[in-house]
Structures are given as structure tokens and as C-alpha cells.
């Protein structure tokens, strides 16, 4: 037993002893491993069973400040991610409870695109970011935290960021409060683009 292994006596019944990653048998490769135990809350809670408990269906019924919504369109809306990778991390969602991009209507697809373009312009203006990561995780197996409701991620990036994943001592450093970021983006959002 290595020094990093938890003695069997100290392990709760039904659980395996913990081992240091350095003790694992492995073949070197070019990949780093990103361990994200905080995402277990999504896995253990399970997928929302329907629209009444889906956070992306509930959000539009709340006021913008409470729901962190920065802009509303006719078919889709933009809100801040409650668990952002970087300050200004937005989600673009259709109002309809659909699971995948291929289920979206042409109007929803167009408005998701328009909201994404506007969000990029606004976030660049207010935060002076240098680029973006944009993506959709389609289905639980692809990493969607809420697989039942389509949502697109828009993550601002800066040349000086270490990248948006580092977590040190179980802590992710975000320099701005969600409410402040939401207000700044909402205030800069052109009114005509959300009608």
C-alpha cells in the first residue's frame, strides 16, 4: 500500500480505498486529464423530468435579474451561466423545451445565431475579450449538463487568461460577480435586436 492510499479501516462501507493518480498503471499520452467532480451534482440529481423542473424553461418566467437573463428574443433568449468557465459565459436557449439542435425550427436556429452574434459584439465591447469558445453539448454522453433543453455556450476568452478550465485547491477564480456582469451586458445590449 502506498502512502497515498487510504487505509481500508478508514473507508466507508461499500466504497473502495482512494489511490494517488501516480500509482495508476498508465501509458503516457499527449492528453491532460480534467477532473470535474463539481459536475456530479448534475449526474446525481438526474435530468429534469419535464418543462416544469427544467431551469431553462423556468428562467423566462422569472424577472431578468433573478434568472440572469441579458436579452430576450421572440424564439430564444440569452442568460449568464450560473457556473461560468469565465466571466461573461452566456447560454443561448430556445424557449421551447427541445433536446437537440436538429429539433429546432428555422426561426429558432436563426434567432440563436442572431443572439450569438449580438452577444459576441456586446461582450467584446464591454469586456474587451480577445476571442470566444462557442459550442453545444448534445446529449448526456456528450457532456450536456441539462440534456433535455438545447443550449449553446458562449465563453469569452482573453489572451492573458490561463485558459478557462484551471481550478486550484477546489476553487475557480472569477473576478466579477454574476449580477454585475449581467447588468453590464444587458445595459449594452441593443434594444432592436431583441424584439
TrEMBL record:
Gene3D superfamilies, alphabetized: HIT-like (3.30.428.10)
The keyword Nucleotide-binding is assigned to this record: yes
Domain HIT: 55-164
Motif Histidine triad motif boundaries: 149-153
Sites where the protein binds substrate: 81, 153
Coiled-coil ranges per UniProt: none
Active site per the UniProt annotation: 151 (tele-amp-histidine intermediate)
Protein name: HIT family hydrolase
Amino acid at each position: 500500500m502506498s502512502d497515498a492510499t487510504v487505509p481500508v479501516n478508514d473507508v466507508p462501507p461499500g466504497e473502495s480505498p482512494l489511490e494517488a493518480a501516480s500509482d495508476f498503471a498508465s501509458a503516457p499520452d499527449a492528453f491532460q486529464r480534467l477532473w470535474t467532480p463539481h459536475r456530479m451534482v448534475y449526474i446525481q440529481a438526474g435530468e429534469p423530468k419535464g418543462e416544469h423542473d427544467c431551469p431553462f424553461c423556468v428562467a423566462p418566467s422569472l424577472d431578468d435579474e433573478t434568472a440572469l437573463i441579458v436579452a430576450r428574443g421572440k424564439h430564444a433568449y440569452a442568460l449568464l451561466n450560473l457556473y461560468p468557465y469565465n466571466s461573461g459565459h452566456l447560454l443561448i436557449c430556445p424557449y421551447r423545451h427541445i433536446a437537440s439542435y436538429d429539433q429546432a425550427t428555422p426561426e429558432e436556429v436563426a434567432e440563436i445565431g442572431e443572439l450569438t452574434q449580438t452577444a459576441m459584439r456586446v461582450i467584446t465591447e464591454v469586456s474587451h475579450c480577445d476571442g470566444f469558445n462557442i459550442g453545444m453539448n448534445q446529449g448526456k454522453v456528450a457532456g450536456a449538463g441539462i440534456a433535455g433543453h438545447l443550449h449553446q455556450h458562449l465563453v469569452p476568452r482573453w489572451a492573458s487568461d490561463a485558459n478557462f478550465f484551471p481550478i486550484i485547491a477546489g476553487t475557480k477564480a472569477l473576478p466579477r460577480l454574476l449580477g454585475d456582469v449581467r447588468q453590464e451586458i444587458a445595459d449594452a445590449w441593443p434594444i432592436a435586436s431583441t424584439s
